[in-house]
């Protein structure tokens, strides 16, 4: 489903590449965890795979589509329709309710929010276990509930791949474990998941663990 060929990414002021001639294949339906020490390149790799940034060399294919050579318009389309991304911080708008936050991706389509959008948002909140909190603002939600809203928002347009960058990093262990349990449930329903995490215990529950060091895969 996703193939990365000879990826290289360098940052100004750094002697070594953040990602160094890296190859990777991810099959549809996999739950892949990427682990490694800080600075190993795992978040940079995830951001390249999810089309948030472009590599300096190499490319990423979604099936037969070279997403690194695609136009910015096409890449923007892919984010949300094919790819979804969640981060350690949820980036919810505090003045909006849970369902209003989940509806935000539909604003990118330049069409008014309609009944079908609202139905989709409610279904996603139900799927992440927060159907009863749709009118709650983030300040009234726990950290785990906020992350669930962020996941619902990321997936509301029907993305087939979820990229998660330290989705449990700001949560206590029990709450983080509940988010991992949710991700496994979504994966069981067919969602492909690529997760960066420092937590080896959480990573060990995924179908494949990729270890990185110095911008390279070491396993």
Q: What labels would you give this structure?
A:
single chain, 219 residues, alpha/beta, six-stranded mixed β-sheet, four-stranded antiparallel β-sheet, 7 helices, 32% helix, globular
What does this structure look like?
There is one protein chain. The radius of gyration is 17 Å and the shape is globular. The strands form two sheets. It has a six-stranded mixed beta sheet with strand order 6-7-8-3-9-10, sandwiched between helices. The chain is 32% helix and 23% strand. Helix 6 links the parallel strand 7 and strand 8. It has helices at 42-49, 72-81, 98-103, 115-127, 143-155, 173-188, 200-203; strands spanning 2-9, 19-26, 31-35, 57-62, 65-66, 83-86, 161-165, 192-196, 208-213, 216-217. It is an alpha/beta fold and 219 residues long.
